[in-house]
Amino acid sequence: MARRILVVSPHPDDETVGCGGALRLHVLAGAEVRVVFLTSGEAGGHGLGPDETRRTREAEAAAAAAALGLAGIEFWRLPDGRLTATRATSARLSELISTFRPDVIYVPHDGEQHPDHRAAARLVHRATARLDGGAARPRVLMFEVWTPLGELDELVDISPVIDAKLTAIRLYASQCRVLRFDDALAGLARYRGEMHSWPGGDYAEAYREPRW
Ligand SMILES: [Zn+2]
């Protein structure tokens, strides 16, 4: 059973949309879940300036993390919309993985339409490639946010925790005002549950393992 979980989230809300159900299940099973927010989503203010947007979205991330029972979150404040998997950021993530020693790393999948999401996947690829051979390599599971996965490697029945996931995403009020993320993720999870996880539960999250 996974004891330590690391999520690499390009923006505040991706962790909840993509894997909030699995994170809640990990917490209920006694795991320690930590999230790195690579950017604070300051470009997604929908009319607000970047500083106010950053403050708002970081506060929303903290509230959502508390609702899911996560152990810790940190903000790396890399540039929203211009995220790249630089050598320095890969080294920083590799260092974190070496010290925290997660059993599983969650990140958006590498076919996502949002360039920051693909950059996050590249970053995890580079950071895990830098790990020295002696340590056990964490399992990487890639989740869907903007672009539904075509090939699935893992389905997680999140029916028991769908309400917690919806509560967490609604705490991202600044984003849900513009786009009904709660309806969208409930719809996708319902689709995954019905079409792919038979005879599983009503709601599911889908994941793919990297081919790198
Ligand atoms: Zn995002």
What secondary-structure arrangement, pairings included, does this model have?
Blueprint: E1 4-9, H1 14-28, E2 32-37, H2 50-68, E3 72-75, H3 87-100, E4 104-108, H4 115-129, E5 139-143, E6 154-157, H5 162-170, H6 173-176, H7 181-195, E7 204-208
Parallel strand pairs: 1-2, 1-4, 2-3, 4-5
Antiparallel strand pairs: 5-7, 6-7
The site of zinc ion (ZN) has 6 residues, from loops.
Characterization of this structure:
This protein is α/β, with parallel strands linked by helices and 212 residues long. It has a single domain (4-208), classed as LmbE-like (Rossmann fold), CATH 3.40.50. 43% of the residues lie in helices and 17% in strands. The protein contains seven helices and seven strands; from the N terminus they run E-H-E-H-E-H-E-H-E-E-H-H-H-E. Strands 3-2-1-4-5-7-6 form a seven-stranded mixed sheet, with helices on both faces. Helix 5 packs antiparallel against helix 7 (181-195). Bound molecules: zinc ion. The site of zinc ion has 6 residues, from loops.
